[in-house]
Structure formats: structure tokens, C-alpha cells
User: Fold this.
Amino acid sequence: LGLVASAFNGVDNADGSAAGLAVISSLFTFLISWSTWQHDLAVLSLVLAGAAVGFLMFNFPAPKASIFLGDSGSLFLGCGLYTLTVLGQWSAEPWKAAVIALLLVVAPLFDFMFILTVRGLEGRYKRWDDPIKMCARDHLFHRFRAMGLSGRQGLLVLYSLGFLGGSLALNCVLHPEKLTLVVVGRLLLFLSVFALGLKRVRLPAGSYTEIGRASCRERV
Assistant:
């Protein structure tokens, strides 16, 4: 619970990022729940998706967001999606069910694990609680911007990662366990190469100097 909630809290670093990913994850959870005859869970997923869409209408940069999630909003989305993915009976095989649940929230989880790993490798942790409290402009979206992408292009790449995870989760539900292993292996390879490329991106000066929740956000 804490991992997924923290991941959504962390990915809420730009207008439209956390809410958009929540819409994608919720819709795929709805599709999978409905296709596996878990209609009560499907309705809850659709409700969460609708709430996120309603919020995203005012949070998407078109041209500027007028409202923001904040910690309470992003943590709520993370807790909601964690609950939905854990309650779902995705497979008779526990490991496959866990894989499907992780795929549904792969984008925020990848962002969260990426920054924790990179910061550790670069020696940026000075205190034991720095991995929990540290905030900097070094997330996936910040690196997309440093590569020269516009704000909306960066969101599109982030959404594409969420769509990829949801598509793979749906594919795993519809196919046998052996294919799930192939999917997981190829995804891990892709994410590893993707992470190595992102690590090489040169961030703007000052990305780590301002430590604070507000300094991590970027107006798109």
C-alpha cells in the first residue's frame, strides 16, 4: 500500500501526470475486471476513473492547470488503485496475479524505483530518512523535459508507459502463464535499457538543490 501510494505521490510532479496515469490504470482495471466477471470491482474502477477524469479536466495543461492534487489527492489515488488491484482475482496462480497487479501501476512504480536507485548510486543520501523525505526535480518527467520534449510531449510519453503496462496486464489475463513470463522478461529488459538511457540525461543545474515538495512540481 505504502509503495503504490508513495509512487503516485512522487509522480505527481507535473500538471496532469498523476491524474492521467490514474485514469489509464483505472480504465484497464475496469476492462480486466469486467472481462473476468468481477463486475463489482469493475464498477468501482470505473468510478475512480470518472473521478480522475473529472479532476484531470482542470488539471491538464490546456494551457495551464487551475487545480492540483497535493499530497492528499495523489495518496488517495495511489491507495485507491492499490486496493482495486489487490482485491482483483486476476489469476489462479498467485505470482501471475501479482504480476498483473504490478503491470496496472507500472508507470508510477517505475518512476519511484528509478529515482530511488539513481539517487542511491549517485550518493545523494546523507541521512537514513533521505530516501523517504528527499524531493528533487529528477523524475521521469523532469528528464523528458531535459531531453528537449515539451510538457505535453513528456506527459504523452508518461501516459504511453502507463498504457503499455495496462495493455500487457490485459494480455496476461487472456493468455497462459508461459506468455506472462515472456511478457515480464521483455518488459524488464525494455525498462532496464530505458532507465540506463534516462540516467545519462543531463539535468539542469539546481535540480537537487531545492529540497521541498513545492520545488519538485513543474508547471507545464
